[in-house]
Amino acid sequence: MKITLLTYLEKEDADEYDVVVDQVAEALKGAGHKPSILGVHGDVNKLVSGLRRRKPDLVFNLMEMFGKNIRGDVAVAGLLELLGVSFTGGGPGELYLRQDKGLAKKVLAFEKILYPDFAVFSQDDMETGGNLRMPLFVKPLRTDASIGISGAKSLVRNGAAMMKQVLSIHENLKDSALAEEYIEGREFYVGVLGNGTAKAFPPIEMDFSGLPEGAPHVLDSKAKWAENSAEFKGTKSVMASVSDEVRARLQEVSLSAYRALRVRDYGRVDLRLTETGDIYVIEVNANCYLERTGEFAVAAEAAGIPYESLVNQIAELAIERHKQAT
Ligand SMILES: Nc1ncnc2c1ncn2[C@@H]1O[C@H](COP(=O)(O)OP(=O)(O)O)[C@@H](O)[C@H]1O
Ligand SMILES: [Mg+2]
Fold it and tell me: Which pTM value belongs to this model?
């Protein structure tokens, strides 16, 4: 197949893109496909003409934002849908459903999946579902990648600290804020692959034991991105060492959440396990990061699916899904 890898560029004329792009391209090439790379920052015409020229059989969608819009992945998927090309991962509706963490929780509620209780503060409105217990964790409603999350500031113990964080999210990210109950406990990530008969990988655990004494055990933006910070150095993901029973329950909850939120092809579910044994879904990531050493690919490997096979299975799942829909 002719496969176009669609990726985000920091600037329209940038010649560097995320490391994951070459890894995916290599894996596809290894299976006999013809990959090409289309990098776009925020130029719609370039995106459309690039695809028209290449006429790919499949777009491998690695586009996580568009221009300066960190939530632009939804619209990009919409454009791909209008162009009639088959592409990996979620369509616009599916991606929106997981991007809006408040809406996603309401869907999980119907499936009786546990999630932290919450309140949404939009810029001009406030929606609470009932009484919330302090401490709360305040984060952006739709912005991901731990942007706007700081262990010290997001974890709040009173109304004043909560409002300060809410207003900071309104102002700095132009996003609504989500205040949810803080779930104390171990943090796990479960990768899921497939449509219809999806398969859950063995859980990965985030090990917070290297964080400074007293620091909240959360994966904030420093822990994710600031390589020289104590937060980054103090956190690492490891294969989870849990009982068979806990592993099975983590996988079962993850599959239910994946299905409930209509994730397509592949995704990763973030969970927390409390001391009393309850499993909460923190969020569901559609089109999760596919980097070779990332949580999803490492878990796939542990499930007996090497990287090259993982990438090619995602491509095949997308093609198969598209065939069935048309
Ligand atoms: N309700 C919560 N209770 C405890 N920790 C949380 C909660 N919400 C988020 N976190 C922490 O913040 C991190 C990032 O939050 P998440 O909702 O996964 O956002 P992102 O989309 O930015 O990854 C999580 O991995 C977890 O460590
Ligand atoms: Mg997350």
Answer: 0.96
